[in-house]
Amino acid sequence: MRTIKDLHSIFNNALQEQQFSGYPRELYEPFTYILSLGGKHMRPVMLLHACELFCGDPIRAMPQAIAIELFHNFSLIHDDIMDCAPLRRGLPAVHEKYNSTVALLSGDAMLITAYKYLVRADHQMVTHLIDLFNDCAIRICEGQQLDMNFEKSEILEIEDYMGMVELKTAYLFATA
To answer: Which of 170, 152, 176, 145 is nearest to 11 (CA)?
Structure first.
């Protein structure tokens, strides 16, 4: 059994091997940029670890691990725009570096690319994976809307806040 550190290294290497380039370059350059900002890659590493525990070979789930990471970064691009966040991981957010229009379109392309990786699974699993991914995406959108609603609230109950966090953050962990 591999350690979490080993799986993290395997994932990082696999992600770096991917070519997120194409024409027009302005669409794909933000992919490379946001992925170069780093991150802990907890979600894809959890997915690989679960695959190793239950299936034996975590490499079988590498495309889905990449899909989870792309989806996560897509959601960060959109979240930063909605929150008007100037920074992501200490550097300019995608919309600050490129502009909001490019960031939205690039984020959308990143989401579509995530689906392309997701469906690289055994044929009998694809429908289930798409359903799972779609449910997760809807929950994250619900959590994001609650987050924006809460910005206008003067009083916020802890249960409401925790429910938003569950939708916006924890659901993607559970999906992984």
So the answer is: 176
Contact between 61 and 132 under an 8 Å Cβ cutoff? The reply is: no
pTM for this one? 0.95
Cα distance between residue 123 and residue 108, in whole Å: 25
Report how far residue 108's alpha carbon sits from residue 35's, in angstroms, rounded to the nearest whole number: 15
Q: Tokens representing 71?
A: 């989806």
CB under 8 Å to 152, separation ≥6 — which residues?
none
Strands (E), the chain: 87-88, 91-92
- Residue ranges of the domains in the chain? 4-175
Give buried/exposed letters for 59-79 (b at 16+ CB in 10 A, else e): eebbbbbbbbbbbbbbbbbbb
118-173: pLDDT as tens digits: 999 999 999 999 999 999 999 999 999 999 999 999 899 999 999 999 999 999 99
- CATH number 1.10.10.10 given to 4-175: no
